[in-house]
């Protein structure tokens, strides 16, 4: 598989979505000879699917590729089958995951990426759905009949936009406390907290952790001290976790 799982879409100083990871995206697209890019914008709520697709097209304008929003396809399943690369936008994870299930797209995306080697680029919600479930998303569940199983490209849970901080005057749970609650209820699983400006890069059977700002990744497992993983680290071992 070729996966680039970005924590978020932009960092300070960026003008384009995915800008901080564009060198990595360019390398994958050139290596895989990508021509036909399909954007999945279903997570977007507060702007249009057309606008989000246009943002991705602008970010990829330095490449000789065609960019199409999956929402415009008469046959979304066929569009996935014809894609040379899949880019999945951030937004609301619950809406994104439910829409993919409702349209019968989970299986076709899994087949394209895991069996055919089609590159998969996601950020925020698009990254969270690469885990076995979306139960460690930060998003509110704003849809009824919510579905949690997702694409399961990686064996661990992901918490995107991870921040190791407390807010003065805020009496609610911290991010770490929420992750601890998840692990208490799901003791056999683990969670990767991926901070802003960082991503997981999977190529074949290898995985590395990368960051444009050198922020470390946090690996949580019940009854174990969290592991702090520095940018540039080989984290292939995490792909074989029994979780």
Automatic annotation (TrEMBL):
Pfam families: Peptidase_S51. Keywords: Hydrolase, Protease, Serine protease. It comes from the Bacteria. One of its GO terms (biological process) is proteolysis. CDD domains: GAT1_Peptidase_E. GO terms for molecular function: serine-type peptidase activity. InterPro entries: Class_I_gatase-like, Peptidase_S51. The keyword Hydrolase applies. Belongs to the peptidase S51 family. This is Dipeptidase PepE. It comes from Photobacterium sanctipauli.
């Amino acid at each position: 598989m070729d996966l680039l799982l970005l924590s978020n879409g932009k960092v300070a100083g960026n003008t384009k979505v995915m800008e901080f990871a564009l060198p990595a995206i360019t390398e994958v697209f050139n290596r895989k000879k990508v021509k036909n890019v399909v954007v999945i914008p279903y997570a977007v709520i507060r702007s249009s699917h057309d606008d989000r697709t246009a943002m991705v097209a602008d970010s990829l304008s330095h490449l000789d590729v065609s960019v199409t929003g999956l929402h415009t396809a008469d046959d979304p399943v066929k569009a996935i089958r014809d894609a040379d690369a899949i880019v999945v936008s951030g937004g609301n994870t619950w809406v994104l995951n439910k829409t993919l299930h409702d349209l019968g797209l989970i299986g076709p995306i899994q087949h394209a990426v895991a069996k055919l080697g089609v590159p998969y680029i996601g950020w925020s919600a698009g990254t969270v759905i690469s885990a076995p479930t979306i139960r460690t998303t930060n998003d509110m569940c704003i849809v009824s009949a919510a579905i949690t199983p997702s694409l399961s490209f990686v064996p661990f849970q992901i918490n995107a936009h991870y921040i190791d901080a407390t807010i003065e005057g805020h009496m609610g749970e911290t991010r770490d406390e929420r992750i601890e609650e998840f692990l208490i209820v799901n003791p056999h699983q683990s969670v990767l907290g991926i901070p802003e400006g960082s991503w997981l890069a999977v190529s074949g059977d290898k995985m590395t952790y990368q960051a444009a700002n050198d922020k470390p990744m946090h690996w949580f497992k019940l009854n174990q001290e969290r592991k702090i993983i520095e940018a540039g680290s080989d984290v292939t071992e995490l792909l074989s976790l029994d979780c």
